[in-house]
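Fig. S4 source data, part A: sequence.
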Amino acid sequence: MAEDWVRLGTGAAVGGAAGAVDQVVQNRDDKEEDRRHKLAATDPAFLKAADKLPMTARFGTYYNYGVPLATVGAVAVGLLKGDTALMALTAGGQLAGRQITHSVTVKARPIVAGYSVWQRQGGGPAPPLAPPAPPASGSRLEF
């Protein structure tokens, strides 16, 4: 009975550690994307406001796909067996699934300091807002 608790605790610890590292890596990638978007306001060589950080520039891509691939390779050559293999494959699947979901669902982050950069370049009143987009054809707005 005690062995079951040890396996459960080990699995929870490994999953928690993998998730914590994933979150730290994702936070680092988000900070880099914010930094590049702030520079986009002054230097057009960087990302446009609507662009995401490329997948190859994200550390999360390498961590979230590299760990599962390394785990599959370790199981294939027999380095990981039994419960350890199952635990590692589960954690790797979680990481890969999280990266796929993040890359598909997260849109580019907006420029954080866009107004302050514009304000420093000449001041004056704020630029006018863009008009609202017309409704899609075939849809009706009712109040």
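Fig. S4 source data, part B ends here. The longest helix spans residues 2-40.
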